[in-house]
Amino acid sequence: MRPQNTIVSVLALLPQALASWPSFYSELESPYRNDEPDVQVSTLFQFPNNGSWVDNLALRRDGSLLLTRLDVPEVWSVDTDTGNATLVHSFPNATSCFGISEIDDDVFAVVVGNFSTTTYQPTAGSFSVQKIDLRSDTSGEEQRVFEQSVVVSQIAALPEAEALNGMATFTKESRLVLIADSPNGVVWKVNIETGDHSVALNDTTLRPAEGQALPLGVNGLKVVDGYVYYSSTTRMEFCRVKVNEDATPAGDYQVIASGFLPDNLDVTEDGTAYIATDPQNSIVRVTPYGQIALVAGGQLSTLMPGPTSCRLAADGKTLYVGTSGGQVAPVMGTFMEPGKVVKITLA
Ligand SMILES: *[C@@H]1O[C@H](CO)[C@@H](O)[C@H](O)[C@H]1NC(C)=O
Ligand SMILES: *[C@@H]1O[C@H](CO)[C@@H](O)[C@H](O)[C@H]1NC(C)=O
Ligand SMILES: *[C@@H]1O[C@H](CO)[C@@H](O)[C@H](O)[C@H]1NC(C)=O
Ligand SMILES: *[C@@H]1O[C@H](CO)[C@@H](O)[C@H](O)[C@H]1NC(C)=O
Ligand SMILES: *[C@@H]1O[C@H](CO)[C@@H](O)[C@H](O)[C@H]1NC(C)=O
């Protein structure tokens, strides 16, 4: 079953959501207006073939970018100065990589499992969290030779999960990562030392909307200042919940903004979110007060077809975006291209 019809039917809602936002609210409460910010957009790197699908991104300390792929079980490194890309690791016994998050200096956790990019069906029970240790990679940004410097090991298998997706490091001290289980509508916490795991968050806002072809609830995650921020895709909601030191809920689940299709996201220390809207072909910015602004791209734009994820660099001004090339919903019904990494420079 193709989820396209479902998605196309909600596409028309974005302009409405933007237009109906009360402007008095923005003037009173926020340093930002919901005007489109000045940006420069360029392609940093693009795969050669249609079907390549960048699912998620993580930044390394040296400024280079790691990306996961959904169409193959691979993690790649992209040099953010030159756009040179190198395969870091290909996982055996799986079809796809999903969330990626730094758990120690230059050590990353990666969600790995089986998923079909033609039927959009995950294989329940096939998901695990793996560790990629890049500490012995001293090859420098150019001419990296990862085969010799990557140490890979399993953190935990999660046979109880239906389809793991986005992931965020909770706190480095807690040794926990949080992982979205999109069809189940829960967030797992996994101890990266012991592999112990259990459901940390379970709420209506995490569950797929009813009557949708694609059961996609909670998707992207980020932990900032004691809150777990998350996207809930088919509900078209961007939410947060305050949590305790063991990642259990400590307050109400709050909807910050709604009316667009959120995929993975990044959130700054002040609570400003940058969210990839996948079939809506754009990146939006959401203030802590819920005002939505278009950052780049757009429903009918071919600038960044199918943006799945974004990460703000340490400078706070450079936003990297990963794309699927528009595989979920080709732009204007027809336009597709290979997956790529886009660099957005915010003014
Ligand atoms: C996952 O996919 C791999 C590669 O296609 C396959 O070898 C493996 O059997 C699959 N695992 C499950 C649990 O289906
Ligand atoms: C392949 O994955 C399946 C399901 O995750 C697991 O049960 C099996 O042990 C794995 N096989 C190998 C050779 O790693
Ligand atoms: C990209 O990497 C190749 C080798 O992998 C190297 O020859 C080339 O100089 C690099 N390009 C840039 C722009 O650094
Ligand atoms: C989540 O909560 C619902 C309602 O309380 C419950 O039926 C369901 O089993 C829970 N899911 C998990 C995975 O714990
Ligand atoms: C990708 O697919 C589109 C249309 O579906 C086609 O126009 C384009 O040439 C393809 N690009 C590549 C690199 O194969």
Automatic annotation (TrEMBL):
Signal peptide bounds: 1-19
Organism: Penicillium malachiteum
Gene3D superfamilies (alphabetical): TolB, C-terminal domain (2.120.10.30)
Top-level taxon: Eukaryota
Record's keyword annotation contains Signal: yes
Designated name of the protein: SMP-30/Gluconolactonase/LRE-like region domain-containing protein
Alphabetical list of InterPro entries matching this protein: 6-blade_b-propeller_TolB-like, Hetero-Diels-Alderase-like
Keywords, in A-Z order: Signal
